[in-house]
Hints:
By secondary structure, the chain is of the alpha+beta class. The protein contains 3 helices and 5 strands. Strand 4 and strand 5 form a beta hairpin. The protein is elongated, with a radius of gyration of 18 Å.
Amino acid sequence: MGFVRVRNLDPQILSVNGEFMHVPEDKVARGVATGIWEVAVEAEVKEMTPESGKGYATKDVLSYRDVHGEDKKA
């Protein structure tokens, strides 16, 4: 059984566990249906950059500019 990262919406759970927590896969749908949490899906997109002699290097950490194509507005 795997776990899914969720964003807490219920004020009681939020005060105890914080904004995010991991929930067993079999309980996720029940919590989403009752409005207790929402699934926090994070983009798994990685930029491929050419690297000499190795083909491509994967960029693991993407900046705001990498994702949105512009600098973050203040």
